């Protein structure tokens, strides 16, 4: 095996292992959120903040990723982030209320840094297979999210109904990813010298359309991650069934996470696909809230098919709207920094609306409006153009 092929294979394995850890810190909370609230005596507003914190810090930490990558290289930055993620997941359940909130915020920050850098690594090392590689790591990310959503409540029951070790369990996949990434982090690519200061993406309308699409679809995703089990429990499912339903929904994402980018790149542009997958997402959310309870499992699958495609398309747009890896990293930093900060309001407002109106009907209208605006942003972002083209 040639050195370059070996390095690319190690990079791909590392990307997939890191991707598996980009969601368990979030999806492991929601199945046991009610139990955490009872044990820690958290109000509904505090529970909403707990689901919002990691998303907020996904956005706040995004600008740190390119700064750190310029100093240490992308590989070493990812290594540091995944090891800090493992530490925060191990410590947060055993550190009281303050430790739970701080550890959850730190986990979100680590995930934000890794999420910003991975599209640039993919663009750099797999330029001829960007959509396929993006689909693969999105699918593995969905697998990790689904495992955490489905297994955390059974783990709690196995640990004598103690949620703390059930949450701490998810430090193990992060530690495994860190060990594998450590092995390859010595082969760091130094960023090429820039002959001039690049134009700011903040003045580019297309960059803002990509950012809005990323942020609004993420707002829906994290509202679902944080509150879908509670919605389904209110509609009659048991806690275990609700966790499994979220897991089923996330597992369904794998199908469209791979196929949506692949099909979209074979079309004239990406506008049809971003509209289709967001429409499926809205149909699934509507079904979970308004449809008869005996059809809930159908709607969680449709929801998963939509959300797998929306996130994969958001990541694909970061690569396709950029001419080179450096621009892809900058666009990723902007889209995820601004987008995830915007997305943090999704689960927060979802919790507030439920608290005020004592039901999910008004929340469903709010999520529908978010999805409609996301479609408008996606129609702009899906045009076959590049940022900073003019």
UniProtKB/TrEMBL annotation:
Gene3D superfamilies with a match to the protein in the record: MFS general substrate transporter like domains (1.20.1250.20)
Pfam families xrefs: MFS_1
Entry keywords, A to Z: Membrane, Transmembrane, Transmembrane helix
Record SUPFAM superfamilies: MFS general substrate transporter (SSF103473)
CDD domains per UniProt: MFS_NIMT_CynX_like
Entry-linked PROSITE patterns: MFS
Stretches that traverse the bilayer: 43-65, 77-94, 100-122, 134-151, 163-184, 205-225, 245-265, 272-292, 298-320, 332-353, 365-382
Domain Major facilitator superfamily (MFS) profile: 203-390
Presence of keyword Calcium: no
A molecular function (GO) term: transmembrane transporter activity
Record flagged with keyword Nucleus: no
Name by which UniProt lists this protein: MFS transporter
Species annotation: Gilvimarinus xylanilyticus
